[in-house]
Amino acid sequence: MINWIIITVIGYLLGAIPFGVLMGKLYKTDIRQHGSGNIGFTNVWRVLGIAPAAIVLAGDFAKGYWATWLGFYFLGEAGALWGGVMALLGHTASCFIGFKGGKGIATGAGIIGFMSPLTLLICLIIVAIITLTTKYMSLGTITAAVLVPVLLYLFHKPFLYVSGITIACLYVVYRHRSNIKRLLNGTENKIGKTKES
Fold first, then answer.
1. What is the pLDDT of residues 140-192, one digit of tens each?
2. Confidence (pLDDT) at 193
C-alpha cells in the first residue's frame, strides 16, 4: 500500500510542476494571460519563442516519463500506468495553479515514451507531417492521441497499457474539445499566427 501512496503523491506532484508558468516568470510574463492562455509548448512558443518552448516541452515530457518509470520500478506495469496517469492528472489539474493546467500532450508523450518508444516515434512523425501540411498543431496532436492505443495494441503491448492509455487518450482529446470545435468551424489558429491554437 505504501508504494501506491508514494507513486500517487510523487506522480501527481511531478505532473503538477507548471513548467510553462515557471518559464513565463523568467520572462516576466504570465503565459496564462497571452495567446490561448494554455501553459503548454505551443502557446509558450508563440508568446516567448522556440527556445523557452523547447525547455517547457522537455520538462513536461520528463515528468510523464519519470512518473511512469517510478511506478514501474516499484510496482511493475500496473504501477507504471498509475504513475503516468497521476502525472497526467497533475499536469492538467495542477495544485500549484488553482487546479488548472495544460492539455496533456507532452506529458502524455513522456508516458508513451516509457511504455513504447516506437509508438512515440511514429506519433511524432505523424504530428510533424500533419502540422507541416495543415499548419494546425492541434490537428496533429489530436490525431496522434487517437492513434496511440491502436499502435500499442498492434505492437502487442500489455492489455493493461492498451486499456488504460485508451482512457487517458480520450481524456486528452476531451481536453482539446475547444480546438476540435474551432477546427470544425474553420476558426482554429494556424502555426505562425500570433495566438496559440
1. 999 999 999 999 999 999 999 999 999 999 999 999 999 999 999 988 888 76
2. 59
Number of domains in the chain: 1
Q: pLDDT of 6-23, one tens digit each?
A: 999 999 999 999 999 999
Give the residue from 176, 168, 135, 133 showing the smallest Cα distance to 36: 176
Which grid cell is 102?
495544460
Structural domain boundaries enclosing 32 = 2-185
Within-domain flag for 195 = no
Reading the block at residue 191, the C-alpha cell is 502555426
Within a domain: 190 = no
For residue 192, tell me if it sits in a domain: no
Please provide the distance, in angstroms rounded to a whole number, between the alpha carbons at the two ends of the chain: 42
CA-wise closest residue to 148 among 131, 130, 163, 128: 163
- CA nearest neighbour of 144 among 168, 118, 125, 159: 125
Rounded distance between C-alpha atoms, residue 85 and residue 166, angstroms: 11
